[in-house]
Specification:
Largest sheet: 6 strands, parallel
Number of strands: 11
Strand order of the largest sheet: 5-4-1-9-10-11
Length: about 230
């Protein structure tokens, strides 16, 4: 039976692909305050602005390509039972070939009902050819179509399935997200006692409280190359 390797990925995973995220050093994404374009209050205040913002962001996503780190995670499925729990809203893991991906914060390539966001009947997959949503477009239930994104302040419905995967991990690998950022820190608590944990992040991290954690202080692609070699031993 293959070892279960669970990845938890964050903003640093997609940096090498040139795709920006909210958690930049200036706290802005494309010069918009997060509260204006990624909160329920922002959506209610100006749904046209929010719709157009995500239309713009989607066009940038289609031009981004999976980096070597994404591809190495996908390739590990040949030897391991791999699950990816990602805080990223891009589809770069899927495009790299990963078959089991749980999106904690939603998916940029989808839109949904603003009244019932997780009702599958009203979730629509967008394509590069038909990417833009006209402001005012309605979902099947008559509410406005909104981005299929977990806005700041909203609950994270996929957290429970992610915790279930974390409990099964024989190895947990955290790439591009801090152990101080929710939900990363919370999901670490679900792994089995003694489960090896690898953190791939170029920044220094205080890990004294976690003796089973190995810090690979490199970027996503370079760190993934080292991880693959370590797991072979």
């Amino acid at each position: 039976m293959s070892k279960k390797v669970v990845f938890l990925t964050g903003a640093g995973m997609s940096v090498e692909s040139g795709f920006k995220t909210f958690r930049g050093s200036d706290g802005l994404w494309e010069n918009y305050p997060v509260e204006q374009v990624a909160s329920h209050e922002g959506w209610l205040a100006d749904p046209t602005l929010v719709t157009n913002f995500y239309n713009m962001l989607r066009r940038k996503l289609w031009n981004a390509q999976p980096n070597e780190g994404h591809k190495l995670i996908a390739e590990m499925e040949r030897d391991y039972d791999v699950s990816v729990l990602t805080q990223n809203v891009d589809d770069l893991h899927e495009r790299a070939g990963s078959s089991k991906v749980i999106h904690l914060h939603g998916e940029l390539s989808k839109v949904c009902s603003s009244d019932d966001p997780y009702n599958e009947r009203y979730i629509r997959q967008l394509t590069p050819e038909h990417s833009d949503v006209e402001p005012g477009t309605k979902a099947g239930d008559g509410s406005l179509l909104r981005p299929f994104i977990v806005f700041f302040g909203e609950s994270v419905p996929m957290l429970e399935p992610a915790a279930y995967e974390a409990r099964k991990a024989d190895v947990l690998v955290i790439v591009g997200t801090s152990l101080n950022v929710y939900p990363a820190a919370g999901l670490v608590r679900y792994v089995k006692p003694g489960c090896p944990i690898y953190l791939i992040d170029p920044n220094a991290v205080a890990i004294d409280y976690m003796p089973n954690l190995t810090h690979i202080q490199k970027g996503a692609s370079e760190g993934m190359r080292e991880l693959v070699e370590r797991l072979k031993k």
